[in-house]
Design goal:
The structure is a single chain. The protein is α+β, with helices and mostly antiparallel strands and 88 residues long. The protein folds into 2 domains: 54 residues, no CATH class; 30 residues, no CATH class. It has 3 helices and 2 strands. The radius of gyration is 14 Å and the shape is globular.
């Protein structure tokens, strides 16, 4: 899994994780460029410049219980998530 150095720096500077799901409204097609994101998400506070990779919808995880639950599998698989959790 590749990491984004600018995003990692932002998270470390904030001292908090950054949360976001796919840049589209529920039931709408996935956005394929930054202009579509701005059009679909008019209340967006800002975007971080950098290399953008458009793929399938985000992996969404419910972490509210001791055992994680995958609500929607996206580009990051349950196996990848479990490997990271178990390696810590």
């Amino acid at each position: 899994m590749a990491t984004s150095e600018p995003l990692e720096k932002l998270i470390l500077a904030l001292g908090s994780p950054v949360f976001m799901t796919s840049a589209n409204q529920s039931g709408e097609p996935i956005c394929t460029n930054l202009d579509e994101i701005e059009k679909m998400c008019p209340d967006l506070d800002g975007m971080m410049e950098g290399k953008v990779i458009f793929s399938k919808g985000s992996t969404i995880i419910d972490c509210s219980a001791e055992e994680i639950k995958i609500l929607r599998e996206g580009p990051i698989s349950e196996e990848q998530i479990n490997k990271i959790i178990n390696d810590k």
